[in-house]
Write a structure and sequence with these properties.
The protein is mainly α and 219 residues long. The chain has one domain. It has ten helices and no strands. Helix 1 runs antiparallel to helix 7, helix 3 packs across helix 7 and helix 4 runs antiparallel to helix 9. It starts with a helix and ends with a helix.
Length: 219
């Protein structure tokens, strides 16, 4: 298997943006507000473990479930891209990710590792959709899907490190800094979402971007 560094970087950026480790820092701090300091490490580990199980479950079974329902991956790519785009728009124009999730946690009076930290902060709907789109069983070999799984684990490991350093990081960037970073990631995610929609249209043979590009070059 030939490893394309640009493809690896693209997948890593996609996973980093949809998981948004930095945006999860304020959520973590809120969730552990009433938790003894000596349990913070266990709290973060538990949240990451749950999020990992959820996302790897989608990696392994997500596409199988959709195909069992008779849905084409191209259609899912388009739908997923639209949802990711809406998700990105909410990151850019709406409440920042930490604001929205902290408010939701406050309303529901829940502050455990499962909610809101593991879900929906780390294993967000956008992350679930992205991981299925990135591991197309019809185009990706098992080795390539294993690489994507490795990148996913790497991003989650980075998320764990950031959560363990959450107090120091939040003091450095502040709530405003986390909000700004979340919005910048939203712009990146919007670009990736549009690319996913175009890829889905190509998969369904509705458009041929490569052919059109070749025609423009020949002209």
């Amino acid at each position: 298997m030939t490893i394309d560094i640009s493809d690896l970087l693209r997948e890593f950026i996609t996973l980093f943006v949809v998981i948004d480790p930095i945006g999860s820092i304020p959520v973590f701090l809120f969730a552990v507000a009433n938790v003894p300091a000596e349990l913070h490490r266990r709290f973060a580990l538990r949240a990451i473990l749950i999020a990992t199980c959820v996302l790897l479950g989608f990696l392994l079974l997500g596409q199988i479930a959709f195909e069992a329902l008779g849905l084409r991956l191209g259609s899912f790519q388009i739908a997923g891209g639209i949802v990711l785009l809406i998700f990105a728009m909410s990151m850019i124009f709406g409440d920042s990710k930490p604001d929205a999730e902290i408010a939701e946690a406050g309303r529901d009076h829940l502050s455990g590792a499962v909610f809101p930290l593991a879900m929906p902060s780390i294993a967000s709907p956008g992350a679930m959709l992205a991981i299925v789109i990135l591991t197309d069983n019809n185009e990706q070999t098992y080795a390539e899907q294993a690489v994507t799984a490795g990148l996913l684990v790497a991003v989650l490991a980075l998320t764990l490190v950031l959560l363990l350093l959450a107090t120091q990081i939040f003091k450095l960037i502040g709530h405003t800094g986390a909000s700004v970073i979340s919005r910048v990631m939203g712009i990146v995610l919007a670009t990736l979402a549009v690319d996913s929609i175009i890829g889905g249209l190509e998969s369904l043979a509705i458009i041929d971007v490569a052919g059109e590009a070749a025609l423009e070059i020949s002209e």
